[in-house]
Amino acid sequence: MMNRRSLGRTALCLAASAMLTLPLSALAADEAPDALIKRLSADVLSTVKSDKAIQAGDLSKVIALVDKTVMPNVNFRRMTAAAVGPGWRQATPEQQKRLQDEFKVLLVRTYAGALAQVNDQTIQVKPLRAAAEDKDVLVRTEIVGRGDPIQLDYRLEKTPGDGAGWKIYNLNVLGVWLVETYRGQFAQEINAKGIDGLIDTLAARNKTNAASAKG
């Protein structure tokens, strides 16, 4: 039986792969956010279960998939800015770019190791509590399989204009929001070493993870 830590890793995997399977084309502006998550969740499970390379932990394939599909469809700049906190406004454009790049690699490598965990899970989307005019919503889901159900929630915002549609900007796994979790870690680094110190720490962590993966 999978323990709760394994289930948590599965939840992170599904959260990541939900973003990985977002289509290249702009999402329909009139698609409801809960309908979007439900559709993506179904795509995630079928994709991961049928892709032997992802199941085997092919990191290069996962990273390529992120570059191709995630960035156009997730508000990753907002996600990174929220994780960095007040220091983001003091960062130069170059520092902001490096923070986004290193944070993306960190998240991809964190999730890639869990991708093989998905097997017989299904996702249930709970009824959406939002008004038609809302531009920022919470979509709650549960991963159901072996063991206790896993809470996996998404915060989405509706983007106007070109590329209009709903975009994910935060994830909640087992009651813990991803952005807030990293904000605490990043704040300690910024207070001790500044923005460049945080960038160096993220780069070093990514290099260590890359070496471990090769080993």
Describe this structure in words.
With 215 residues, the protein is α+β, with helices and mostly antiparallel strands. 58% of the residues lie in helices and 16% in strands. The chain has eight helices and five strands, in the order αααααααβββββα. The protein has helices at 4-20, 33-50, 52-55, 59-73, 76-84, 87-90, 93-112, 178-214, and strands spanning 122-125, 136-144, 150-159, 165-173, 176-177. It has a five-stranded antiparallel sheet. Strand 3 (150-159) and strand 4 (165-173) form a beta hairpin. The protein starts with a helix and ends with a helix. The relative contact order is 0.18.
Q: What is the H/E string?
A: HHHHHHHEEEEEH
Strands of the largest sheet, in order across it? 1-2-3-4-5
Structural class: alpha+beta
- The whole-number mean of residue pLDDT values reads 78
Q: Uncertain regions: pLDDT < 50 for 5+ in a row?
A: 20-27
Present the secondary structure layout.
Layout: H1 4-20, H2 33-50, H3 52-55, H4 59-73, H5 76-84, H6 87-90, H7 93-112, E1 122-125, E2 136-144, E3 150-159, E4 165-173, E5 176-177, H8 178-214
Helix pairs in contact: 1-2, 1-7, 4-7, 5-7, 5-8, 7-8
Provide a short characterization of the protein structure:
The chain has 215 residues and is of the alpha+beta class. It has 8 helices and 5 strands, in the order H-H-H-H-H-H-H-E-E-E-E-E-H.
